[in-house]
Amino acid sequence: MKLTVIGTGYLGATHAAAMAELGHEVLGIDTDSSKVARLNAGEVPFFEPGLPELSQRNLQAGRLRFTTSYDEIGAFGEVHFICVGTPQRKGSNAADLSYVHGSVDALIPVLQAGSVVVGKSTVPAGTAAGIAQQVQAAGGDLVWNPEFLREGFAVADTLTPDRVVLGAESDRAIKVMHDVYARILESGTPLIVTDFATAELVKVAANSFLATKISFINAMAEVCEATGADVTQLATALSHDERIGGKFLHAGLGFGGGCLPKDIRAFIARAEELGVDQAVEFLKEIDAINLRRRARMIDLARQLCSGTLAGMRVGVLGAAFKPNSDDIRDSPALDVAAAIQREGAAVRVYDPEAMANARISFPALAYSSSAAEACADADVVLHLTEWSEFRTMHPSVLSDVVRQRNIVDGRNALDRDLWRSEGWVYRALGRQ
Ligand code: UGA
Fold first, then answer.
1. Which domain holds residue 67?
2. Structural domain count of the chain
């Protein structure tokens, strides 16, 4: 089939390559011409394991191409995926839908009658119904098909998703989607066909649940700190109950990134508009617990520096919002690093992949090209993103370069006994 993908960020670039991998002919579009040139040359403008290989393979096979021209995509295909971003609106909790509406407005004049427009962007409930009217007036049909991929696992999550959700009003459009996803569905992937509002809500409900799980264990970490208990052992014990499970129960510095924080805030904003704000009032607490972990991290660093960070040297390990990603959107690591610098500390940051993005967004921070360099003469080391490079690093790599052997493990991912046996003062969130 001939498909187009509008927007080539983390979602769109992955979706385009994955659809080509399924055997479709795919044309991706983005307004950023330098990005389009890089994608056509087989470069992926962000770090995503496996995606460069997938893109190159499909570019070479002639199934994948990128353009900046809407005229071209209208003529090219009959199924158009909307994969543009919906960031948090400035000065508000609500989602900024300008890219979604902008892409639909640009697509409508070139849409061929009988085409199917597929929304994948995360949007507040009620958005799809409005877009459906526009698409129908142009002779097409809309499907809302939320995306659940995780950065770092984007290729596998797209090619072998846990489920496919299709919100639609037209049987013809559902049939087309069966053809698009034939290979995925034939392998037994659960399919949920529903209305627009439910499809939109599945996505925000899923991210809200995940955020709630993380904040739940981080709330327990606060209690553990007050009682002398150990949140990592608590989580392990809880995880053996299959009803609870162990995933997303990892206590630490909490969630960040371009999805969970802004999605729960947009959900709160939409619920207020709908008059059901009480139903998601708890999400405000989920957000607050999450942000408190960042403050606690700074407290622990301050404690290890005898009560003040002013004039101290701080080595920061990690800048990305999570490992295996170079995404620094709402990164807890960089938020903490910047706050510590504001308290008068000299902060040096090292991350295996996110340095270029961090430098652009946080130009006032200092950066190093290795963990040892970032921690040179440090009074305290902060472990803020659990890259395997840090998890497997022997303390001796840093022992002789730091001024004081102080470390705060913001991700509960280092071997506490090993670090202590090497003479380090080891502190962590939620345990002694
Ligand atoms: C999240 C969801 O997991 C995806 O299903 C969804 O498709 C995506 O948002 C999206 O809306 O596009 P992602 O933002 O890539 O994916 O990252 P996650 O793996 O969910 O991690 C989010 C944050 O939670 C990270 O900062 C991570 O460090 C933190 N986290 C995760 C914890 O603090 N503890 C955990 O146990 C798990």
1. 2-194
2. 3
Q: How confident is the model at residue 298 (pLDDT cuts 50, 70, 90)?
A: very high
Tokens matching residue 391: 């998890």
**From atom 34 of ligand 1, which residue's Cα is the shortest distance away?**
250
pLDDT tier, 303 (very low <50, low <70, confident <90, very high otherwise): very high
Spatial distance between the Cα atoms of 373 and 367, rounded to a whole number of angstroms: 9
Q: How distant, in Å, are the alpha carbons of 136, 148, 198 from that of 129?
A: 11, 21, 11
Predicted TM-score (pTM) of this structure: 0.97
- Domain assignment present for residue 199? The answer is no
**Arithmetic mean of pLDDT, 393-410:** 98
Query: Do 422 and 378 lie in a common domain?
Result: yes
Residues 188 and 266 in one domain: no
Could you tell me if 262 and 349 lie in one domain? no
Q: Using the atom order of ligand 1, give the atom closest to the CA of residue 256.
A: 26
Report, as an integer, the average pLDDT of 157-171. 98
Query: How far from the centroid of its chain's Cα atoms is residue 42's Cα?
Result: 23
Residue nearest to atom 2 of ligand 1 (CA): 150
pLDDT tens for each residue of 278-289: 999 999 999 999
Nearest ligand 1 atom, CA 259: 11
Instruction: Pull the structure tokens for residue 354.
Output: 């996110």
Query: Would you put residue 23 in left (φ > 0), alpha (ψ -120 to 50) or beta?
Result: left
